[in-house]
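Q: For a teaching handout, I want to show students what a protein-ligand complex looks like in token form. Below are the inputs, and the small molecule is uridine-diphosphate-N-acetylglucosamine. Please produce the holo structure.
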Amino acid sequence: MTAETSTSIESAKAGGRSLTAIVLAAGKGTRMRSDLPKVLHAVAGRTMLGHVLAAAGEAGANRIAVVVELGQGTVASEIARAAPGASVHPQVERLGTAHAVLAARAALEAGSDDVVIAFGDTPLITGATLTRLRAPLADGAAVAVLAFTAENPTGYGRVLTQSGRVLAIREEKDASESERAVTLCNAGLMALSGTHALALLTRIGNDNAAGEYYLPDAVALAVADGLDVAVVPVDEAEAQGVNDRVQLSVAEATIQARLRRAAQIGGATLVAPETVFLSFDTVLGRDVLVEPHVVFGPGVTVGDHCVIHAFSHLEGATLAQGVSIGPYARLRPGAVLEAGSRIGNFVEMKNARLGEGAKANHLTYLGDAEIGPGANVGAGTITCNYDGVNKHRTTIGAGAFIGSNTALVAPVSVGAGAIVGAGSVITASIPDDALAIARSRQRIIEGVAGGMRAALQAIKASRSKKDD
Ligand code: UD1
Ligand code: CA
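A: Here is the structure, written as tokens, with uridine-diphosphate-N-acetylglucosamine included.
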């Protein structure tokens, strides 16, 4: 099985501590140069915000609060879809990360043992990491900081320590030269104990180079109060934020590497993994073989022992065991392929079920259709499902044979075991076991071909003389 797996999340939930997750998603994302709010850009088939909300859920959040830019209705509807119980808090002015957290003050006031703060534009963060981040709170820490050691720390807040103890986080703009040399960087995400969260956050001021209320200032305040501050390590790649489309593609590459690896570890062979694109929810069974250049959009489940030949594109499709598709197959939402069925090159399926052992091997469109077990759909068959206004269904019975180049004008049904002659245009339903032929009858006119050819050659010769 693939799909991003999150490990041992249950252990933290089992601790019985309640968790409020606050996701900061305000900001226009100007550098994306997009009509779409930044957090709605997708990686691995899911919005960045959707990834972060899922991670919060995996970490056991019983309350999720999202801070959004005022008037971004599309963000609110994505939250309603991805995390139906989450509350939405507009941040009227963008005065810094601590100010943003306090926009969700109502969620903090509701009270919880732990608070985790995540960023909507940091989509690679996993539920497992959020679980590690909150863990020190159970041991009495007031604040836990997620941090990594960067080769090039430029731009990040630096985590300042003295003899192994955290003192403060200093933003780049406010850092002295010696502080800038520090390579331990703040990943931005933070956990606060519910007991101290509001008291710390409301004391954060904006006396700094940017004039912003900095969430990382919670660290120095906690230290001054004699409270414990923990540092939790994370990979820099996992904490990577996305500000422009170059970083969006870097995040995509990172998550693809993760998903491909999980698919391989789960028992699928990816012949050329770097050419296979997976979605966050792709499920591949045991001994699935995926040839090069295959794209899995969201909502695909592939059963054991399936073969996905090269250059296939799947989305919203379910394949039972031992199914073979492609090369160049296209499965659109609602395609269901029962055990042992197969579709070949340039076959498209949409909202259609192919029964057990049924075949459509070449150049075919099956839309809004039900194909019975063992049926054989010949090359160039088209289900004409759309009359320009409405969609209609085609039903093909078990063991039926559809001759090549057949148009099935829906609504229409082909009975079990029936045979349709090649080149037919089927407009009326066919009973079981019947033969249907719907094409113009062939005429033979003997002994005229030679004369016709001579006449055509004469026309050609007279034309080329004129051209001279
Ligand atoms: C932040 C940290 C920095 C850390 C870095 C890691 C602060 C002050 N600094 O800096 O120490 O190294 O992340 O990437 O926290 N946001 C709001 N409303 C605001 C301000 C920000 O919703 O008023 C959201 C942004 O949309 C973004 C997140 O908070 O998702 C982080 O804000 P950003 O301005 O990008 O912080 P950094 O400068 O990256
Ligand atoms: Ca940032």
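A: Two things your students might notice: Residues 38 and 47 are 9 Å apart (CA to CA). The mean pLDDT is 95.
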